[in-house]
């Protein structure tokens, strides 16, 4: 099969490309970074260098493809982040319609069922609807949990303040996922020939936030590490100081509030809180410790 992968050689896309290439598929990886071309080709894939904001580039790249893996990176600008992210989804949809691609697999998120109180995930809610309305195209929405690797962002806080936390309590359960588990699920879905549309939750573990402190603390030799529930204001301030634009900081604050209120996890729980990934929190803690000590 001829399969298009968006997301350059990111945490999911690279592993996905490697798996599909090993299965004998023709893979084209889209990247906006010219310097990635040789690395993409070294994997055995073809490189398509261009911007996902360029519809004509997408049409040319999607031409003749059997299926496409669609990641929609948040447009981390100062303003209109949700709108700009949705516009990328619209570009993908237009390219699919124009080129006759029959199968798409979208990297979505737990919480994408809701249009509100989920921060940057709101853009994925609208993009799911755009893809659902495409005629003669089968779709799978991979609603992934919170990426384990996002915890790497907490390392400075742990080192400087000896704590870890967010604007939800230690008792709140958070669905988690490892990128390699997403890549495995995406590879399965991309070669499916079904004409159905479906939602597939991709979650590796589902744990109370307090466990993050316990498990990571044990892994890094800080058994007394505590989970702290920050206020929304403290969360916004901390994210802003980390260098993100004000609008994105507000979106992440909102997402944490949505986790605290249960809006983000609600549909995942209705589905029975399915766990299909192989990487438990304790498994990832080894990677976390390596990163912490590097």
TrEMBL record:
InterPro entries: Ergot_Alk_Oxidoreductase, NAD(P)-bd_dom_sf, NmrA-like. It comes from the Bacteria. Residues 2-254 form the NmrA-like domain. PANTHER family: PRESTALK A DIFFERENTIATION PROTEIN A, PTHR43162. This is NAD(P)H-binding protein.
